[in-house]
Design a protein that fits this description.
Serine Threonine Protein Phosphatase 5, Tetratricopeptide repeat; mainly alpha; single chain
Length: 111
């Protein structure tokens, strides 16, 4: 479904769909890796000029999940473009505020 959105140029739909129902819990490492890779692919497919508006269109819950994926992506710099992730982090923090960072850091559920 996410790939369909990306191929059709609906980057907002792709982003929102990729953030739905993240796998939480133990024993889901393969699912977490697949979801993280999908979110990273979506983030890399979006133009920098579109980032701020797309972040504004996300629900607060989706913004928090996106922040979790940004940190997961930053934890593997050899696999992800840190510049892209930092640009997303900057825009997300501008829109969602520092509370988003605090919620993500204190949440025991990881993606």
């Amino acid at each position: 479904m996410v790939i369909t959105f990306v191929l059709s140029g609906n980057t907002g739909g792709a982003l929102s769909a990729s953030l739905q129902n993240p796998p939480y819990g133990r024993g889901l490492d393969a699912a977490k890796a697949r979801n993280t890779a999908t979110v990273m692919e979506v983030l890399n497919s979006i133009k920098v000029a579109e980032v701020a508006q797309l972040v504004k269109n996300l629900t607060p819950e989706e913004q928090d999940v996106l922040m979790k994926y940004l940190y997961a992506g930053m934890a593997a710099p050899e696999q992800n473009n840190s510049g892209v992730l930092l640009a997303w982090h900057e825009k997300l923090t501008e829109v969602a505020g520092q509370g988003c960072i605090v919620r993500v850091i204190t949440d025991r559920r990881t993606v």
